[in-house]
Specification:
By secondary structure, the chain is of the alpha+beta class. It folds into two domains: 70 residues; 79 residues. The chain has seven helices and four strands; from the N terminus they run H-E-E-H-H-E-E-H-H-H-H. The protein has a four-stranded antiparallel sheet.
Length: 166
């Protein structure tokens, strides 16, 4: 999911005149998907033009410690529920299937997208945290972020198919 968005940003980023090729990475901040050091290596007007172009494509732009932070709504993946629900991700998907709700899911979606991009172990670690969080929400009779379900299913499908191939 994140690789397609990264390619969209790279296309715009590499067209900007800069002192060197700009860095583009997953953001360490929970409220952004990506980050670039473009402001540190390009003229202000080039950074402004880059930011304006991305905003027209639906990106939200911020700054943190001299870097641009980039965020946008991630398109909902068209996937079905994985056949086997195993591990921490299986527990999280199972909870969302049994307790569908419409609580805000943006933070969970962003975390899932970034964890899936990182690999199986970070995704499993995130799912362990989500499982604990979702179980606590259920005990408090709070809604679960049901809109995160397709993202979790997609990430699990991608990571599971990679594991089966390798």
């Amino acid at each position: 999911m994140l690789s397609e968005l990264r390619m969209q940003v790279q296309t715009a980023l590499y067209a900007v005149p800069a002192k060197r090729k700009p860095a583009l990475r997953r953001s360490d901040l929970p409220q952004a998907l990506l980050a670039t050091d473009l402001p540190l290596i390009a003229e202000d007007n080039a950074v402004a033009a880059f930011s304006d172009a991305l905003r027209r494509q639906g990106w939200r732009i911020g700054t943190h410690q001299g870097w641009l932070t980039l965020d946008r709504d991630v398109p909902v993946p068209a996937v079905q529920r994985p056949e086997r629900l195993t591990g921490a991700w299986g527990c999280v998907i199972s909870l969302l299937l049994r307790h569908p709700d419409e609580a805000p899911a943006e933070d969970v979606i962003r975390a899932v997208v970034k964890a899936e991009d990182t690999g199986k172990m970070p995704f499993e670690r995130l799912c362990g945290q989500l499982h604990a969080d979702f179980a606590a929400r259920l005990r408090r009779h709070e809604p679960l972020p049901g809109k995160a379900l397709p993202y979790l299913c997609h990430a699990a499908e991608q990571l599971y198919s990679r594991e089966a191939e390798g």
